[in-house]
Amino acid sequence: MNEDTRSLHPEQPPAGNPRPAVPGDPAPLGLAGFALTTLLLSIINTNLLKEGAAVIPVLGLAAFYGGIAQFAAGLFEFRRGNTFGATAFVSFAAFWLAYWWIVPRLALAGDAHNALGLFLLGWAIFTAYMTIAALRVTLAVLVVLALLTLTFLFLAIGAFQTGAQPHAMTQVGGWFGIATGLAAWYASAATVINETHARTVLPVGPRHPGTAPQARDERPA
Known about the structure:
By secondary structure, this protein is an all-alpha fold. 65% of the residues lie in helices and 0% in strands. The protein has 6 helices and no strands. The protein has helices at residues 27-45, 55-79, 83-109, 113-133, 139-160, 168-197. It is globular, with a radius of gyration of 22 Å.
């Protein structure tokens, strides 16, 4: 009986179409979604943009780019085993989805400045300990989270104050938010450009390259 020896074994993929050894990096997507949404909202918080309906594009970004797209990036970080990236992206995606849900209801609910201040203060605390974790990631991500901690802190102080909006502290938070968005955009662009060019075009400043301390071979020589 003759067998066609040219047929491929079912478990062996064609040589001309190899599977990628490493999945794509979801971090640039998460950073980009966070960056643009943060940047647009922060421009409003500085009172540079005074249009009454300016929040509508922010809500759209908060739902779909800062929210859903960043949430997807966080789930893929879980799959890659990156606890830091997964926690950061899923959490900030939840922040933007919460913002998308809360803001339209604030106009109907009446005064809620203390509750909003507590909401923002809680996010400042979360971002602060993520900043400590970022000491083991890259300088670019560390800068993003350090600036974001200050952004949330100033926005929280501004929210606790009463009177006409925006308060001076809210505007300061807006300026820090602009810096945060630009830093996040840089981190996203650097990751994409460096990967596609297969070399470092935009440095991100790795903090602790190599294996984790517990993974090192500590056997005596």
